[in-house]
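Training component of the fellowship. As part of building independent skills, the fellow (R.M.) carried out the full modelling exercise for a liganded target. The chosen ligand was adenosine-5'-diphosphate. The inputs are recorded below so that the supervisory panel can assess the work.
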Amino acid sequence: MLLTEWRLPTIKHLWEALAEQSNREGWPAERFPSALCEHEVNERQMRRIDRHRLESCLPPDKRLSDFDFAAVPTVSKAHVTALAEGDSWLEPGANLLVFGPPGVGKTHLVAGIGHELIAKGYRVLFTRTSDLVQRLQAARRDLRLPAELTKLDRFDLLICNDFSYVRRDQAETSVLFELIAERYERKCLAITANQPFSGWDHVFAEPAMTLAAVDRLVHHASIFEMNVESFRRRSAQKGLAPF
Ligand code: ADP
Ligand code: MG
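Fellow's submitted model of the complex:
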């Protein structure tokens, strides 16, 4: 459900009803303005969260509440719940790395965590890694890569989906390395990848860069290996739609 669907009425709409309630119940003088302010603060907070959800580009329907943890025994629900709380890993700029073959729920899981973090007031951006590389490359061409990286700093968590689909011949991926180095120990990255680190040599320009990138990514990281059968395939076998 979108927050807008149950948004509180604004002060303009609310004050008459509150004034009436205040008169009826004989509130002390200070209670009326404080009740109005409380509503206004709540309203602003909800509008901010709405904005953050919109800017995040998260797939709207991938929530943790719909994620079947029993299907992925290697992923601890308690660990995911702790990550969804935010502070313990977002403040020190740790990372989340999710590996597994296609269809096992990597995107669903990180998107679900992203939604929870937004509800807690954090800012999240979900992007396909290849789109991000293009955006950063364009910035480098215009000599504004540092400014573009700084712009991404406003997101507490940057989710790079399908990391290992990037090919160094498609794009100049040293911008990805600069992103990783720039956010290291400051701002979080979540990465989903079909291939383990050993298959990342095609992502970066040279093996030394792959090594340096992986080193920074894993230094403070939660790593989930989702080596289970594709949820899509299982759903198809059971005759259930995965959506
Ligand atoms: P991946 O990113 O690993 O390729 P997705 O996250 O896109 O996989 O999952 C494929 C489909 O299966 C999506 O529709 C997703 O919502 C669903 N799905 C996968 N794993 C689960 C799960 N454990 N619980 C509920 N739905 C799941
Ligand atoms: Mg995916």
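The panel noted the following from the submitted structure. The CA atoms of residues 27 and 234 lie 60 Å apart. The longest helix spans residues 31-56.
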